[in-house]
Write a structure and sequence with these properties.
Helices cover about 40% and strands about 15% of the residues. It contains 27 helices and 18 strands. The radius of gyration is 25 Å and the shape is globular.
């Protein structure tokens, strides 16, 4: 795993100074502490930081082709590079034994379409001196990030936003639409970033920039689930056997490494399945890692130990006592953008623990989205089940009646929304709903956001999935937005801060494309989740893992906000000098804090998101439009960026 960056000035008489590339590159040293490289040629500069995994003594980057007319800087792993190399060997000369050079020659053979031949996780940029063209790409699910800035003079890119901010004169005006999305969901989805001038390349997309300053964005792959008429009709036993084979191949490909390798093991179905499959493939005991907290409610290490004993792994278990006051600002800096998924805390700690022993781990990320595991999927199924008994004309009446049912009644939450589409469950959030956000904003900001833009991408995702069954609609929306925006962002930033590579075999695109054709009843029903996955790997795991309830990677957030984080809240978010007061009604924030402290309301997740935002604004945003006041800032934030950007599907 690595960090990449680069600058291209469109004026051919310009020169990129190596010192600029070095400052961008070295801002991301944590992504690649083992080696650094720079290539500059006139108006083009590429930078690279390396975490050595494959071909330790070779594959130095930026890497050229044979005549040095094509250069690449590449972050990630290509798992099928050996098969692809064999295909290209007759027409190209290979000088290394790693995967980087395979991408160069695949580009020479297929152009930007080379991404379709790559099986892995990646973000790369290829400078083609002959064509005067820069080609960037991100893997199908967005496991590896790529930020970029395009204006009429230059194109800048980096694995992390902080790399771009090393360039002088970068506009830091905030994008209010992105901020509204953050308050709604706790993260910001591509192509937006928190800064109006900077964008993220979306998963499954390429970006080709020409010397005229025109950039063309193309989607080369999409996480498309299929309608019922295209589902596979094999028996469930046959489908489970086929899935087992696809999973074994995905795991086997990801166990190729020239450095020590292990696995995260939480004791949930997904990570346990990965460990079980690794144990089948490996000739040696798999190294596994888990962390727990002193609070028993948040500790699942006993389940992880059960799996470790069953699979015969070499297991490391560590109970952590987080120094949350110290670690939170460090993580806020690492994420570059406002980010409020509190499971970033345990994700960072387990990455730290693993890095003491190995350089690469496999994880179970993607299992909930691919196989059907989130609680809100089942909530949606239950609502649809009730809807089947109530004629559409009567559902509004039933919904009004449901609002009066005792809240403790299990059926009440479903009856009260019986007239809503299944998308309702995918739109719910633990953060701020539109009314809460409207009340939080100052008047001049609120006027700019009267249409609640935070929900727009979610709404569009459900429109695109309208032809699918309800469960597939919910999965599709998460695959498109939640997984790359939250889950994969969290894993990338936390693991890279520990200089650890994380590989996700459940997010192999061939695993997804198989599951996309599986009848939804084999993914989840009213009482069971991940049905086909459990059937496929059932013999590898202890029975307790199959029957336990879904357990997220959570922390005692409420206790921390009333304990060790209370002083930090007062000193930052509630301070008269809080940067976020340019946007928000300070009185409402104080009221939320008081109600949360005395227990009259639970605002833990909302206060946490505001605290993370305040810490972020103090470090990243105060040099931008905040200094002009909220009114000027709001007026400046609305125009869309990148008039020279063209999108093609």
């Amino acid at each position: 795993m690595c960090g990449i960056c680069g600058v291209w000035y469109f004026d051919p008489a310009s020169t990129v100074e190596p010192q600029l590339i070095a400052s961008m590159r070295d801002e991301m040293t944590h992504r690649g502490p083992d080696e650094a490289g720079i290539h500059t040629s006139g108006p083009v500069g590429l930078g690279f930081r390396r975490l050595s995994i494959i071909d330790l003594d070779g594959s130095h980057q930026p890497m050229p082709n044979e005549d040095e007319q094509v250069w690449i800087t590449f972050n990630g792993e290509i798992y099928n590079f050996q098969a692809l190399r064999h295909r290209l060997a007759d027409r190209h000369c290979f000088r290394t034994v790693g995967d980087t050079e395979t991408i160069i020659h695949a580009y020479e053979e297929f152009g930007s379409e080379c991404v379709k031949y790559l099986r892995g996780m990646f973000a790369f940029a290829i400078w083609d001196a002959r064509q005067q063209r820069l080609t960037c790409a991100v893997d199908r699910f967005g496991k590896k990030p790529l930020y970029y800035l395009l204006d009429h003079e230059k194109f800048i890119f980096a694995s992390e936003l902080k790399g771009i901010l090393q360039c002088p004169g970068v506009d830091r005006d905030l994008d209010l639409d992105a901020l509204d999305e953050y308050l709604a969901y706790g993260y910001i989805t591509a192509p937006r970033t928190v800064f109006r001038s900077i964008r993220k390349l979306q998963p499954g997309h390429t970006l080709v920039v020409t010397q005229s300053g025109v950039a063309t964005v193309r989607e080369y792959w999409h996480p498309a689930l299929v309608p019922p008429e295209q589902w596979l009709t094999d028996s469930v036993n046959d489908l489970a056997a086929r899935l087992r084979g696809v999973l074994l191949e995905a795991v086997r490909l990801r166990m190729v490494s020239d450095v020590p390798l292990g696995a995260f093991l939480s004791g949930g179905v997904d990570s346990s399945a990965v460990v079980g499959l690794m144990s089948k493939v490996s000739a040696y005991p798999v190294r596994t890692f888990t962390i727990g907290f002193e609070e028993a409610l948040y500790d699942e290490t006993s389940y992880a130990q059960l799996v470790a004993d069953t699979c015969g792994t070499e297991h490391t278990r560590e109970v952590v006592r987080p120094d949350i006051v110290t670690i939170l600002p460090k993580l806020v800096h690492q994420f570059d953008e406002p980010f409020a998924d509190s499971s970033m805390i345990p994700t960072y700690y387990v990455s730290q623990v693993a890095r003491q022993h190995v350089t690469v781990v496999l994880s179970g990320d993607g299992g909930d989205e691919i196989f059907g595991g989130y609680p809100w999927y089942r909530y949606g199924l239950r609502q649809m089940f009730l809807q089947s008994f109530v004629p559409a004309s009567l559902r509004p009446v039933a919904g009004r009646i449901g609002a009066y049912l005792p809240k403790a009644t299990k059926i009440a939450p479903y009856v009260s929304v019986i007239d809503r589409a299944v998308a309702y469950w995918g739109m719910r959030t633990d953060f701020f709903d539109p009314a809460q956000r409207a009340a939080l904003y100052k008047n001049d900001v609120r006027t700019q956001l009267r249409h609640a833009p935070g929900e727009q991408q979610k709404i569009e995702s459900f429109k695109r999935a309208a032809g699918l069954d309800g469960l597939s609609q919910l999965q599709y929306s998460d695959l498109l937005l939640y997984m790359p925006g939250d889950i994969l962002t969290k894993v990338d930033r936390c693991s890279m801060l520990a200089s650890l590579e994380v590989r996700c075999p459940l997010l192999d695109h061939e695993v997804f494309e198989f599951m996309a054709r599986i009848p939804s009843r084999y993914r989840m029903n009213l009482t069971a989740s991940k049905i086909l996955l459990k059937k496929a790997v059932g013999d590898l795991l202890p029975p307790q893992i199959h029957t336990r309830n879904k357990w997220g990677f959570s922390i005692p957030l409420g206790e921390w906000l009333r304990g060790p984080l209370a002083d930090m809240l007062c000193d930052t978010l509630l301070s008269p000098n809080a940067a976020s007061h340019a946007l928000f009604d300070a009185g409402r924030i104080h009221l939320m804090f008081d109600h949360n402290l005395n227990g009259t309301a639970d605002h833990a997740s909302r206060l946490w998101s505001l605290l993370c935002l305040e810490l972020w604004m103090r470090e990243y945003a105060c040099g931008g439009s905040l200094s002009s006041g909220a009114s000027t800032m709001a007026q400046q934030m609305r125009p869309e960026f990148a008039p020279d950007l063209h999108h093609k599907s």
